[in-house]
Design a protein that fits this description.
Helix content is 51%, strand content 12%. It is built from 21 helices and 15 strands. It has a 5-stranded parallel β-sheet with strand order 7-6-5-11-12, sandwiched between helices. A 4-stranded antiparallel β-sheet has the order 1-2-4-3, covered by helices on one side. Helix 1 crosses helix 3. The longest helix has 42 residues. The protein is flat and about 90 Å long. It starts with a helix and ends in a 9-residue tail after the last helix.
């Protein structure tokens, strides 16, 4: 119905343009909202208020002209002027039943929108450093990012899902040396493992596999490995100096070729594990974009040259700086260190240049909330590259915090003390994990309740929604068991007999679904869809408990079956967008 009203308003605006009341250059943004008070109608528009200034007209007088130009439609009972220029629409009560036939006719397509007009949107999410398995904190970004992408697609955007693989830099070198040292232990070497190394069991497993497949190919005497290496922190030294010295020694002893091979084995092992985890969690990408590729093909240097040409770089203290403070950042940033190495930020600038060059209309970066301070410098880079910073949308996601009883579980990748996404999925299931992750705004703090997520009760929100779908399926099974046949056409003809309060409430909620999809997509808020599905499930369960569907009167029975069949379809459509199963029995 909202879409129909928008179409009528567009025709009214075109009429006023033809009459010379509105200029041809005016392109209205038509906002239609449901009213909170039924006395003010069912829908309202503030179009006259928005057009008053460009049209140089009084908003109330303009609203009167818009109302007069509206084409007649059987679904609109009356249109009224309110306040300073609001236009209120009162819907014909009988038109509310049309939503049932619409849902049955469109099926899985119901709720899809064209509001995105095919605009190209790149959504980058998760992008965790491939230095270890994904943990439960990453899971929230994975669920949120994948649902945002699917909502945008449902709203008519062309969506490209991408994972940025940080496979270059110091952290990857630390991973490589950590695996190598565990490999040397497999070879029989005995030594103190560095305080700043990656300690998880997965590091030992990778090292064990490498040793099994290569024997002692990468073994070097421990006395050479540790010769003149600075002391580690437990021995009174500096942990960073110690690990960096070990990295340099590994590169020296293995040589460029063998180091690269060993590095690649560790990276491939972890990256493949991440891909499997995400795929089994219902997350898929069109592209896995490598940071190293930006280094190897000269993209980082090209990005910096573009900034230099624009007068955004300068030299100081032997380093190259980006003057980001001139473009809204709190301070300038180093892009090339004194030793000539690019910083992480330099790679990020090149990556965003690559995104812009690929012609996306919108770039959506989904980051952990701990990256909030990174946003201004990236926006500054977008501007310095000559692009409109509004093309970049950064969405921050708070890490979910897992509790076992009263004890919070620590999640440090370096120490290895963390709960992986795979462990969480095995314990609570993909459906519950994804549902819980997107129940709240992404920027809100979240405690993950394992006990609730695994319970089979109405208090468990995902169980409650899935059970509503399964309940409708059970109604149709009961129909078959009674030997009755459903007459779809008869049900449609008798929908007007559905006058119970629960039925009217369900009809209104079903009609809201397309609006929820558009709003959730445009505002990047999957929780709006989750809340809608919980409301719809609640209304259905209440209806189920209050009324019999399989009554003797075939007209009422088929009308009610058509109504609950529409509920089933919308629940399935919504759950599908969340990549959650819609079970037929529970």
């Amino acid at each position: 119905m909202k879409q129909k009203i928008e179409e009528l308003i567009v025709k009214a605006v075109e009429t006023l343009k033809t009459e010379g009341i509105l200029g041809q250059e005016i392109i209205p943004h038509i906002a239609i909202e449901r009213t909170r008070d039924s006395q003010h109608g069912d829908f309202a528009s503030n179009l006259a208020l928005m057009l008053a200034k460009p049209a140089k007209a009084n908003p109330r007088e303009l609203a009167i002209k818009i109302i007069a130009a509206l084409p007649r439609h059987e679904a609109i009972m009356k249109v009224e002027l309110a306040g300073p220029g609001f236009i209120n629409f009162f819907i014909n009560p009988n038109s509310q039943y049309q939503i049932v036939s619409q849902i049955h006719a469109q099926g899985r397509e119901f709720g899809l929108s064209t509001i995105g007009s095919g605009k190209k949107v790149q959504v980058e999410f998760v992008s965790a450093n491939p230095t270890g398995p994904l943990h439960v904190g990453h899971g929230r970004g994975a669920a949120y990012g994948s649902v945002v992408a699917d909502l945008l697609k449902a709203a008519g955007f062309e969506v490209h899902r991408e994972y940025y693989v940080n496979d270059a830099g110091r952290q990857m070198d630390i991973l490589a040396v950590s695996v190598w040292l565990r490999y040397l232990e497999e070879c029989g070497e005995v030594f103190h493992f560095p305080f700043n190394g990656y300690r998880g069991d997965y590091v030992r497993e990778i090292a064990r596999d490498i040793h099994k497949n290569t024997n002692n190919d990468y073994r070097r005497p421990m006395e050479l490995v540790l010769e003149n290496i600075p002391a580690d922190e437990p021995q009174g030294g500096d942990k960073d100096e110690h690990i960096d010295a070990l990295i340099d020694r590994m590169k020296t002893l293995l040589g460029v070729g063998l180091y690269r091979d060993f590095f690649q084995i560790g990276l491939n092992n972890i990256l493949e594990d991440i891909k499997i985890d995400l795929r089994e969690f219902g997350v898929n990408y069109q592209q896995w974009f490598s940071e190293r590729d930006l280094m190897d093909d000269g993209s980082v240097q090209k990005a910096l040259e573009r900034l230099r040409a624009g007068g955004h770089l300068y030299e100081q203290d032997g380093a190259t700086w980006f003057a980001s403070s001139r473009l809204g950042d709190e301070k300038d940033r180093v892009v090339v260190r004194e030793n000539g190495q690019f910083t992480y930020f330099a790679s990020d600038i090149a990556y965003h240049m690559n995104k812009l060059d690929r012609g996306f209309d919108q770039i959506v970066d989904i980051w952990g909330a701990d990256h909030h301070g990174y946003v201004p410098r990236v926006r500054a880079a977008i501007q310095a590259l000559g692009a409109d910073e509004s093309k970049l949308k950064v969405l921050l996601v708070q890490f979910a915090i897992l509790y076992r009883g009263e004890e919070r579980v620590q999640m440090s990748t370096r120490s290895g003390e963390f709960v992986t996404l795979r462990q969480l999925r095995n314990e609570v299931g993909k459906d519950a994990a994804r549902f819980f992750y997107v129940m709240r705004r992404s920027e809100q703090h979240m405690d993950f309740d394992l006990k609730l997520a695994t319970s089979k009760s109405n208090e468990n929100p995902v169980f409650y929604v899935q059970y509503a779908h399964a309940r409708v399926c059970s109604v149709f099974r009961q129909l078959d068991e009674k030997g009755w046949e459903r007459n779809l056409s008869l049900g449609m003809e008798n929908l007007v007999k559905l006058t119970e309060e629960h039925e009217i409430l369900l009809l209104g909620t079903l009609a809201r679904y397309p609006e929820v999809i558009e709003r959730a997509a445009l505002q990047y808020e999957p929780h709006q869809l989750v809340h809608y599905l919980r409301d719809l499930a609640h209304e259905f369960h209440t209806y189920y408990n209050a009324h019999q569907f399989l009554v003797e009167d075939a007209c009422i029975r088929d009308a009610r079956l058509n109504l609950v069949g529409a509920v089933k379809q919308v629940l399935a459509n919504g759950l599908s967008l969340l990549n959650i199963n819609a079970p037929e029995s529970m």
